[in-house]
C-alpha cells in the first residue's frame, strides 16, 4: 500500500491539562529529530492530532523509527483525499483495491464527520462509501461487530483520511518531561533496561558509572560508554559520569569482610551518586535491581543498601523476570553490547558466599572503622569525569532549527 501520511496518537499525558502543550512540543521535537533521516517529510498539527507527511517516502521504515518516540501510543498509516464526496468514494475504492481482499474477508466502513459542514452525516457516509465497495468487491462480506478490515474514513475540513491499520508504539511520557534522576549504569543487561524504562516514563537521566582501574579494563569502560550512547539514541542526549572507585573499593577489601563487600560497595556507590545528584539537581537515584536476582538484591540487602541515601531509590525492574528484561534489552538495542564479557568492578570482587541478609549495625561499624572513607568518597566525586553523548539522530540538528520550529 502506498500511503501519504502517518497519524500519530499521543498517550496518557494528553490528560494532563496545562502541561499538555509542553508535552506535545517535546514529542514534536523528538519526532523531528527522527525525521531528519527522511528528507521530504514534514509534520502537520491539526486540532490535537499530529500527522507526518511522508513526502513520497515509504512508510515502513519511518513508522518503525517513530514507534520508539516516547509519548506516542500508536501510529496509523493513512491515505489522504480531498473532503469531497465523489473523491472520498473513489479513494476508498482504490484503498480496497490495494488491500486486494480474499474471498470471505469481512469489512465495515467507520466514517466520522469531524468537519460538520460536510454534506453527509457520518452515518450517511458509511453507506455512501460502503455500497460501491460491496458492489465492486464480491469477495467482501459486511460484519459490523468484528470485521477483518475496518476502513476508517475521517472527514476533516482540510482533507479526509482513510486508514485501517494501527501499529502499537512505545507510549509513556515525552522525554525529559517528568524530572531528573541519576542512573546507576553498570555494563550489565539490567541497568540499561532500567534506564530506558525510566526514560519512557519521562525521566531525564544522568548516568553514573563506577570503574576501578587497574582492576577493570579500558574495554569495560568503553562498553559502558557505548551503552550510554545507545541510550542517547532514545534520550537525545545523556551525560555519563565516570567515577574512579578504586580507592573506596580497596579500602573495603582491607577490612577482610569478604561476605559484605558488595553491600559496602553498593552503599558507597549510593553516597557518591547522591552527592552527584545534589550537584546536578537530580531528585532520585535509579538502579537496575530486580528482586532476588543476586545476593545484593534480596529484600534484606536492598534494605541495608538503600539506607545509605535519603533520595528516593527507583528500581523499575524490581518485579520483572530476567526473560522479560532480556527481551526489552534486545528491543532497545543494548543486549549485544551488554553481553560483551568485560569485568565490572562488582563482578570482579564478588566473594564466594556474599551475604543475602546483611546486618545494618555490623555494616555501619565496618564503615566507621575506615576513618578516611568520607574523604575517599569526596575525592571520587571530585575526580569524576563527565562525558556528553548524543544520539546519532540528533547530532546534525542545530539548535536554531529546533527553535525556529515553534
Ligand atoms: P546489571 O545487569 O545492571 O549490571 P546485575 O544483575 O548484574 O545488574 P548487579 O551487578 O548486582 O546486578 O548490580 C545491581 C545494580 O547496581 C545495577 O543494575 C546498577 O544499577 C548498579 N551497579 C552495579 N555495578 C555498577 C557500576 N559499576 N556502576 C554503576 N552502577 C552499578
Ligand atoms: Mg552487573
Automatic annotation (TrEMBL):
Chain's role: Catalyzes the ATP-dependent transfer of a sulfur to tRNA to produce 4-thiouridine in position 8 of tRNAs, which functions as a near-UV photosensor. Also catalyzes the transfer of sulfur to the sulfur carrier protein ThiS, forming ThiS-thiocarboxylate. This is a step in the synthesis of thiazole, in the thiamine biosynthesis pathway. The sulfur is donated as persulfide by IscS.
Reactions accelerated catalytically: [ThiS sulfur-carrier protein]-C-terminal Gly-Gly-AMP + S-sulfanyl-L-cysteinyl-[cysteine desulfurase] + AH2 = [ThiS sulfur-carrier protein]-C-terminal-Gly-aminoethanethioate + L-cysteinyl-[cysteine desulfurase] + A + AMP + 2 H(+); [ThiI sulfur-carrier protein]-S-sulfanyl-L-cysteine + a uridine in tRNA + 2 reduced [2Fe-2S]-[ferredoxin] + ATP + H(+) = [ThiI sulfur-carrier protein]-L-cysteine + a 4-thiouridine in tRNA + 2 oxidized [2Fe-2S]-[ferredoxin] + AMP + diphosphate
Any one Gene Ontology BP term: thiamine diphosphate biosynthetic process
Stored SUPFAM superfamilies: Adenine nucleotide alpha hydrolases-like, THUMP domain-like
Gene Ontology molecular function terms on file: ATP binding; CCA tRNA nucleotidyltransferase activity; tRNA binding; tRNA-uracil-4 sulfurtransferase activity
Binding of ATP, residues: 184-185, 209-210, 266, 288, 297
Gene3D superfamilies reported in the protein's UniProt record: 3.30.2130.30, HUPs
Keywords of this entry: ATP-binding, Cytoplasm, Nucleotide-binding, RNA-binding, Thiamine biosynthesis, Transferase, tRNA-binding
Main subcellular location of this protein, as a coarse class: cytoplasm
UniProt keyword annotation of ATP-binding present: yes
Pathway linked to the protein: Cofactor biosynthesis; thiamine diphosphate biosynthesis
Protein EC: 2.8.1.4
SMART domains recorded: THUMP
Protein name in the entry: Probable tRNA sulfurtransferase
Record flagged with keyword Transmembrane helix: no
Domain of life according to the entry: Bacteria
Organism listed in the record: Paenibacillus urinalis
Domain annotation THUMP: ranges: 60-166
GO CC entries: cytosol
Family annotation (Pfam families): ThiI, ThiI_fer, THUMP
Classification via InterPro entries: Rossmann-like_a/b/a_fold, ThiI_AANH, ThiI_fer, ThiI_N, THUMP_dom, THUMP_ThiI, tRNA_STrfase, tRNA_sulfurtransferase_ThiI
Subcellular localization, as worded in the UniProt entry: Cytoplasm
UniProt family annotation: Belongs to the ThiI family.
Amino acid at each position: 500500500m502506498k500511503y501519504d501520511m502517518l497519524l500519530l496518537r499521543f498517550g496518557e499525558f494528553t490528560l494532563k491539562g496545562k502541561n499538555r502543550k509542553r508535552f506535545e512540543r517535546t514529542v514534536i521535537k523528538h519526532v523531528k529529530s527522527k525525521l531528519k533521516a527522511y528528507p521530504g517529510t514534514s509534520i502537520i498539527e491539526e486540532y490535537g492530532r499530529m500527522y507526518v507527511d511522508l513526502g513520497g517516502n515509504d512508510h515502513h521504515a519511518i513508522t518503525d523509527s517513530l514507534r520508539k518516540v516516547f509519548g506516542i501510543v500508536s501510529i496509523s498509516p493513512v491515505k489522504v483525499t480531498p473532503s469531497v464526496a465523489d473523491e472520498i468514494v473513489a479513494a476508498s475504492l482504490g484503498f480496497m483495491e490495494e488491500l486486494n481482499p480474499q474471498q470471505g474477508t469481512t469489512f465495515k466502513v467507520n466514517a466520522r464527520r469531524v468537519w460538520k459542514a460536510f454534506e453527509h452525516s457520518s452515518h450517511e457516509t458509511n453507506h455512501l462509501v460502503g455500497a460501491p465497495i460491496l458492489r465492486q468487491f464480491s469477495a467482501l462480506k459486511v460484519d459490523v461487530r468484528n470485521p477483518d478490515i475496518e476502513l476508517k474514513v475521517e472527514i476533516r475540513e482540510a482533507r479526509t483520511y482513510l486508514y485501517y491499520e494501527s501499529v502499537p508504539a512505545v507510549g509513556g511520557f515525552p522525554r525529559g518531561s517528568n524530572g531528573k534522576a541519576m542512573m546507576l549504569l553498570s555494563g550489565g543487561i539490567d541497568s540499561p533496561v532500567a534506564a530506558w524504562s525510566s526514560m519512557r516514563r519521562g525521566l531525564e537521566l544522568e548516568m553514573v558509572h563506577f570503574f576501578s582501574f587497574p582492576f577493570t579494563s579500558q574495554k569495560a569502560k568503553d562498553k559502558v560508554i557505548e551503552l550510554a550512547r545507545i541510550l542517547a539514541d532514545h534520550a537525545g542526549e545523556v551525560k555519563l559520569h565516570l567515577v574512579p572507585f578504586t580507592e573506596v573499593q580497596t579500602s573495603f577489601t582491607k577490612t577482610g569482610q569478604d561476605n559484605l563487600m558488595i553491600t559496602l560497595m553498593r552503599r558507597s556507590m549510593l553516597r557518591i551518586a547522591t552527592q552527584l545528584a545534589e550537584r546536578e539537581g537530580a531528585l532520585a537515584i535509579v538502579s537496575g535491581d530486580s528482586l532476588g536476582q543476586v545476593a545484593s538484591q534480596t529484600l534484606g540487602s536492598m534494605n541495608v543498601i538503600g539506607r545509605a541515601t535519603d533520595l528516593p531509590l527507583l528500581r523499575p525492574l524490581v518485579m520483572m523476570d530476567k526473560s522479560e528484561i532480556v527481551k526489552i534489552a534486545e528491543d532497545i538495542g543494548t543486549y549485544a553490547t551488554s553481553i560483551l564479557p568485560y569485568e565490572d568492578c562488582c563482578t570482579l570482587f564478588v566473594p564466594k558466599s556474599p551475604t543475602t541478609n546483611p546486618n545494618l549495625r555490623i555494616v555501619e561499624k565496618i564503615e566507621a572503622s575506615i576513618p578516611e572513607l568520607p574523604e575517599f568518597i569526596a575525592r571520587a566525586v571530585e575526580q569524576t569525569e563527565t562525558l556528553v553523548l548524543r544520539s546519532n539522530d540528533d547530532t546534525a540538528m542545530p539548535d536554531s532549527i529546533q527553535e525556529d520550529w515553534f
